[in-house]
Amino acid sequence: MSTQSHKPLSIALLGASGRMGREVLALLPGNTGFELSGAGCSPEGGLLAQPVSLLQKGLPDLRFDGNPSKAVAGASVAIDFSLPDATASHLDACREQGIPLVLCATGHDAAQLEAIRELSKTVPVLLAANTSLGVTLLNRLVEIAASTLGEQFDTEIFEVHHRNKRDLPSGTALKLGEAVARGRKAELAELAENRIPGSQQLRSPGSIGFSAVRAGDVAGEHTVLFAADGERLELVHKVSKRSTFAQGALKAAQWLADQPPGLYEMSDVLGLN
Ligand SMILES: NC(=O)c1ccc[n+]([C@@H]2O[C@H](COP(=O)([O-])OP(=O)(O)OC[C@H]3O[C@@H](n4cnc5c(N)ncnc54)[C@H](OP(=O)(O)O)[C@@H]3O)[C@@H](O)[C@H]2O)c1
């Protein structure tokens, strides 16, 4: 689906009433690159049928819609900051109307990921667990570090997020784990290790562990620790403002609008592949 560079890109925002949806809405007034064409919320949401201007002044005269097919109608791209439970109906709506999808929700199970891959055969889909520039680059740096350091280094992926985050480990932590495994020319499932608190189990050398904290209002922090006998390397990324993710999602939408069907990630948007 091609867009003229001088014409604003019409976007449907799914999960528009949530924390991240509101961050995207806040970037739109006065932004000549984008035009909001629809705003989705859950079918029983507190803001259902309310005007989007309740949350953000300067937006088109639209109401929050609990029907994804209606929310995406007429859009050039959909951006989804909802939750995994909503993904199936959002995929259906985008398939029916041929709308490219920037999927920013995280915590999908294997069946949901398969449905996402299926959709990408007919429309462009960008699966972005983290739309920040820094984390996109971190994935690449982690792959290089893992490949260089090898199996003598144990890897721990440590993340901190706000108390309302549901999925654990975060989608970003899992992607970082995949980057470590790629660097080691292995699958994450082969190297990942879940140690049970209270058990006397020792760490398997060279394994990938995950640790997480949920507290306060932390927007998102990830540390990838490589530790061997005598030295350790830590690669750290911290987000201080959620608008960082919202800006990345808009950048991704602009890029995806001109792509053929396929499954993409943020590294494609930044030309890292
Ligand atoms: N990609 C990234 O860079 C990035 C960054 C931060 C967060 N995230 C992810 O983005 C997602 C949203 O995070 P958040 O903090 O904004 O969550 P949130 O505040 O809980 O918002 C969730 C949104 O999803 C909607 N929703 C929930 N169930 C739905 C359903 N069944 N059908 C349609 N809409 C539904 C909610 O609508 P109601 O208000 O009507 O309930 C709300 O708009 C999470 O998966 C999070 O991990 C991604």
The CATH class of the largest domain, by name, is: Alpha Beta
Q: Identify every distinct bound molecule in the structure, by name, code or SMILES.
A: NADP nicotinamide-adenine-dinucleotide phosphate
Average pLDDT metric: 95
Oligomeric status of the shown chains?
A: single chain
**Would you identify the regions where 5 or more consecutive residues have pLDDT less than 50?**
none
Overview of the molecule:
- This protein folds into two domains: 147 residues, Rossmann fold, CATH 3.40.50; 107 residues, Dihydrodipicolinate Reductase, domain 2, CATH 3.30.360.10.
- The chain is built from nine helices and eleven strands.
- The strands form two sheets. It has a seven-stranded parallel sheet with strand order 3-2-1-4-5-6-11, with helices on both faces.
- Helix 4 links the parallel strand 5 and strand 6.
- Bound molecules: NADP nicotinamide-adenine-dinucleotide phosphate.
- The site of NADP nicotinamide-adenine-dinucleotide phosphate has 27 residues, from helix 1 and helix 3.
Reconstruct the topology from this structure.
Layout: E1 9-14, H1 19-27, E2 34-40, E3 64-65, H2 68-72, E4 77-80, H3 84-97, E5 101-103, H4 110-119, E6 124-127, H5 133-149, E7 154-161, H6 171-183, H7 188-191, E8 208-214, E9 220-228, E10 231-239, H8 243-256, E11 262-264, H9 266-269
